[in-house]
Write a structure and sequence with these properties.
The protein is α/β, with parallel strands linked by helices and 289 residues long. It is 40% helix and 23% strand. Strand 1, helix 2 and strand 2 form a beta-alpha-beta unit.
Length: 289
């Protein structure tokens, strides 16, 4: 009797082990199948390199995930300045870029004799701000000496900064220069500003040595500064002249009509992207589509 019971228990245990092994094999096969499908899906996505300035591309990550549903994937290529993204696009090292205003783009390709690039869509407008480490209000600035002020040293952003200083009442510019004035076009400097041109991404670190500075929105954000909390003043983005400062997505002219590129612009210009911009930047970057 004991032998029969022992035999039955042995057979039962063997059956359980066999079923467990089969179940494990089945689960493993299922997991492998899922992994293979995900790998195949990723492998079949049409991939494009997107040049961006700086390291914060959370909104574009949101867009990238949605583009995956359309068979498109984006690889982010980070640049630390405003020069290389257009050169990399022109040479074919990247497929698209999204970091610049339209006026900057037009001026850059003119100055650098680049004729194979074109805007394919608008993204946001990002107001410039006036920032200082010495005062909390522009009215607190001293009036008994010259004020040390920094602006970006490239033509379009420098001109934009000068127009902003004019709107604040610090200087008057030659109106014939439009949105691209230079320091030589200052006709009145009643507040006695000593204006220094600097590489845009170096200005935040120089704030302790300045009375105030005009800083690009993206550069300010990368440095932990926001227009809502830190700016002493910022551009009125509703002004007509501000349309020149709308940010763009750029591509090679030969690629401008690609269906995938049209889809990238289409997916960017959606309510979901507006929501992502608000969540990530709290009004720092304003949609313009």
């Amino acid at each position: 009797m004991k032998k029969n019971i022992k035999k039955i228990l042995t057979l039962a245990l063997s059956s359980i082990l066999l079923l467990t092994a089969c179940g494990s094999t089945s689960n493993t096969q299922s997991e492998n199948k899922d992994n293979t499908q995900n790998s195949n899906k990723t492998a079949t996505l049409r991939k494009y390199k997107l040049g961006l300035n700086g390291t914060d591309h959370r909104v574009w990550e949101n867009v990238r995930k949605r583009l995956n549903n359309d068979g498109i994937d984006l690889e982010f290529v980070e640049f630390a300045d405003y020069i290389q993204p257009n050169k990399a696009l022109s040479s074919g090292d990247i497929d698209l870029n999204a970091f610049q205003t339209e006026i900057y783009f037009e001026n850059f390709i003119k100055e650098n004799n680049i004729d194979n690039l074109t805007p394919i869509g608008y993204t946001v407008v990002a107001p410039m701000g006036a920032y200082s480490k010495k005062v909390k209000d522009l009215k607190e600035l001293p009036t008994d000496r010259a004020l040390k002020v920094a602006i970006p040293n490239d033509t379009s952003n420098g001109g934009r900064a000068l127009k902003f200083l004019e709107s604040l009442g610090y200087i008057k510019l030659d109106p014939s220069k439009g949105n691209l004035p230079t320091l030589l076009d200052i006709k009145e400097n009643t507040k006695n500003l000593e204006i220094t041109e600097m590489a845009a991404n170096q200005i935040p670190a120089s704030l302790p040595d300045l009375d105030f500075a005009i800083i690009n929105n993206g550069v300010a954000y990368e440095a932990g500064l926001t227009i809502s909390k830190d700016a002493l003043a910022y551009e009125d983005y509703k002004e007509e002249r501000m349309k020149d400062y709308w940010n763009i997505i750029a591509a090679k002219k030969d690629d401008a009509q690609k269906e995938d590129f049209k889809k990238i612009v289409e997916v960017y210009q959606t309510e979901e992207t507006k929501k992502a911009l608000e969540e990530q930047y709290g009004g720092q970057s304003i949609p313009v589509w």
